[in-house]
User: Which sequence fits this backbone?
């Protein structure tokens, strides 16, 4: 008997789909892509018009065999996701199963609901070869770029590096922004604020204009001592705040980061789970459009639960020119379901999606704005007080987070006010903001680089490859002058202010800057923002049948490959940004800074065998220095490391140096990190104190020491170790009462630590 076999790409989606299709259908999963270009080798025959060679992934051979068994003699329905990648998965499966593309039933749906599934099954379509070709073009183009660029970086900069059509552009954005920040010279001005007495209430206000220099700020405060203050004008006007459109992929990523603190990759993983379990519509979309069903559902919910005055139907226009593969914005499949998800994170993301979609169909919030100007009798400047009152919450009732009401006291024009205090604080102009994951997504979308499905993997890749770090910037502490007028006297105070501090932002590593400079010089057109955006437009043209994918790849390769040949002529020294700082006065040898195998390095002596038979010496850069700004004066002392600091009480030698993880002191095999001291300046007394503190901490960690086997306190509780294996101690066992035999028995059952292969030395 013929069965209906439905193939999807994930087990979770298969389980949800099976609930709606019933016993006449068997739903199976391909577990994602089943075949791809080979991991080793180019996999693209350039001479044969860029013919790709696909192979079944080693971990999918059993899956493919199972799919073939299920499909044999049965009706196959391909139900992978509705975007280009989903179309490509369906196409690969059809070829592996020997299906006729013109006869194979392809079904797509934007949400996993009974109604959507029923409609899809009733109207199956054929595979869309144009969408498949667009995805093939992207995959092949990215393979050509990566396969030809990456080896150049291995030879010229450092082994193990990678480059990519989109990832290298994303890295370039972050590098250029960081350099803008470094070169930024903050301008100072004074911001003057005051507090007035109006009847029994206090009225805070600010000077309308900023003041350039401290002298002028002092003159103003001196004038305020004898000035009279009156209400000049009162302006009241109504205003509104309208809701934002429902989520697209990129706006979901941005808002999830802002409100929930989720990373881009984390957001997409959670959204994928919600979609596969039938709770939300498809989460990869450029569209802000809601379906007629959704519009009807929101109207019913808002009118019934909140009242008709809260409803305002809107249909947002999608602004993205690339929204050809999206049918609808991200929204709940059922607005009456207020909470879903298998964990707290899924529940929070669902609530965010529910609130945003519902709020988009709600009435605007109404506010009453009040601006009061305050005249100064002996100056032409004015103070301004502002107030804002929410008169109707509208959509803010559902999607809150708005400002609290700021209510001003009752005032009359010409009313005299009494000055309580005034102060002038230094204000520093801000450098361009560093990118967060969310703001990088917004920038990539703005430039037309990548697509919704590419943002999360791109940002994840550049972090995994060590180009970008998510880190805090400490900023610079500046001593600033604060002027305070109170009780008729002006006083001055010096206060420290931190300028340029950032939290949890994307920052480039040294290798990101080196690679970006190299690629910008030799592959400017490839990592050009406009070029990368135009490549996406090419894929769009292929997807709608206006361009053939082989022609698009051929045109690109004709421009790209000659650049590869030119870049091969670049010297390693040039790629590593080698720069001669000067000559060491003691040895007469050159001092060079360059990018080495593990990062920036100082080199004393030449690598040219004819010029210098001795091996060159190497040293790390001073703390805070960079390749492009380190000086000879900073470099020379670094060659004194490792430096003998002194000896312990037992006569063991103490040395200080800088390693891959920062400065440290060392005694035998014991390393102690230096957080505040300079390895060039730390003395024997300080070193002994650090060692004693370190030994005390280590002793407190040790519960029992049996020689090779120890029982230690760890961050996750007590454990047993012999240096090769770690074993957890059951909560029912008291570690302090364990014998060596007990510890040995538990350790014998523990798995050995994973060993990571080391790169072979050349």
Assistant:
């Amino acid at each position: 008997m013929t069965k209906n076999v439905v193939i999807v790409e994930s087990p979770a989606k298969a389980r949800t789909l099976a609930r709606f299709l019933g016993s006449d259908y068997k739903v199976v999963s391909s577990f994602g892509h089943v075949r791809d270009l080979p991991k080793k080798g180019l996999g693209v025959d350039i001479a044969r018009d860029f013919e790709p060679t696909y192979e079944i992934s080693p971990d999918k051979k059993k899956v493919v065999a199972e799919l073939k068994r299920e499909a044999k003699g049965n009706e196959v329905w391909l139900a992978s996701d509705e975007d280009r990648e989903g179309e490509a998965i369906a196409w690969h499966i059809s070829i592996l199963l020997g299906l006729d593309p013109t006869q194979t039933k392809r079904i797509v749906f934007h949400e996993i609901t009974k109604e959507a599934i029923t409609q899809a099954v009733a109207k199956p379509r054929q595979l869309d070869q144009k969408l498949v070709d667009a995805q093939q073009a992207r995959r092949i183009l990215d393979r050509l770029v990566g396969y030809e660029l990456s080896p150049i970086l291995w030879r010229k900069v450092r082994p193990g590096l990678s480059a990519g059509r989109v990832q290298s552009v994303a890295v370039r954005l972050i590098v250029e922004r960081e350099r803008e920040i470094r070169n930024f010279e903050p301008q100072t001005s004074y911001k003057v604020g005051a507090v007035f007495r109006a009847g029994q209430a206090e009225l805070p206000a600010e000077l309308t204009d900023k003041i350039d220099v401290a002298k002028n700020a002092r003159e103003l405060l001196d004038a305020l001592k004898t000035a009279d203050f009156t209400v000049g004008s009162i302006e009241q006007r109504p205003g509104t705040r309208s809701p934002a459109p429902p989520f697209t992929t990129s706006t979901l990523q941005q808002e999830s980061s802002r409100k929930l603190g989720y990373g881009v990759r984390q957001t997409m993983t959670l959204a994928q789970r919600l979609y596969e379990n039938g709770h939300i519509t498809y989460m990869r979309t450029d569209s802000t459009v809601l379906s007629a069903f959704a519009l009807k559902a929101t109207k019913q919910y808002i009118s019934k639960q909140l009242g008709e005055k809260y409803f305002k139907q809107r249909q947002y226009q999608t602004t993205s020119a690339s929204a050809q593969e999206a049918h609808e914005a991200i929204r709940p499949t059922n607005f009456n379901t207020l909470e879903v998800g298998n964990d707290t994170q899924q529940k929070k993301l669902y609530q965010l999606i529910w609130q945003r979609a519902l709020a988009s169909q709600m009435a605007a919030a109404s506010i009453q704005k009040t601006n009061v100007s305050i005249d100064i009798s002996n100056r032409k400047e004015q103070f301004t007080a502002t107030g804002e009152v929410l008169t109707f919450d509208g959509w803010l009732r559902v999607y809150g987070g708005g400002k609290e009401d700021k209510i001003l006291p009752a005032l009359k024009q010409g009313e005299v006010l009494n000055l309580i205090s005034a102060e002038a604080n230094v204000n520093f102009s801000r450098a361009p903001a560093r990118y967060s994951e969310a703001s990088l997504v917004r920038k990539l979308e703005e430039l037309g680089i990548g697509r919704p499905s590419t943002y999360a993997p791109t940002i994840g890749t550049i972090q995994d490859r060590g180009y970008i770090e998510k880190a805090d910037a400490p900023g610079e502490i500046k001593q600033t002058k604060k002027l305070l007028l109170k009780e008729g006297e002006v006083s001055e105070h010096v206060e420290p202010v931190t300028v340029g501090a950032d939290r949890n932002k994307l920052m480039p590593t040294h290798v990101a800057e080196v690679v970006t400079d190299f690629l910008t010089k030799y592959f400017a057109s490839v990592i050009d923002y406009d070029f990368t955006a135009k490549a996406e437009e090419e894929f769009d043209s292929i997807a709608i049948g206006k361009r053939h994918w082989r022609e698009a790849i051929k045109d690109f390769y004709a421009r790209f490959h000659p650049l590869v040949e030119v870049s091969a002529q670049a010297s390693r020294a040039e790629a590593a940004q080698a720069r001669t700082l000067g000559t060491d006065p003691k040895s007469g040898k050159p001092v060079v800074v360059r990018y080495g195998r593990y990062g920036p390095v100082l080199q004393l002596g030449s690598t040219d065998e004819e010029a210098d038979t001795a091996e060159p010496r190497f040293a790390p850069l001073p703390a805070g220095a960079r390749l492009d700004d380190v000086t000879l004066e900073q470099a020379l002392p670094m060659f004194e490391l490792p430096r003998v600091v002194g000896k312990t009480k037992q006569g063991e030698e103490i040395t200080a140096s800088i390693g891959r993880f920062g400065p440290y002191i060392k005694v035998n095999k014991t390393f102690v990190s230096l957080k505040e001291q300079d390895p060039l300046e730390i003395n024997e007394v300080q070193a002994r104190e650090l060692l004693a503190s370190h030994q005390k901490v280590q002793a407190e960690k040790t519960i029992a020491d049996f020689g090779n086997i120890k029982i230690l306190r760890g961050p996750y509780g007590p454990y047993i170790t012999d240096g090769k294996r770690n074993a957890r101690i059951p909560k029912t066992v008291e570690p302090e009462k364990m014998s060596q035999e007990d510890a040995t028995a538990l350790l014998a059952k523990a798995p050995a630590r994973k060993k990571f292969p080391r790169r072979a030395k050349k």
Summary: Residues 321-326, 756-762 have pLDDT under 50 and may be disordered.
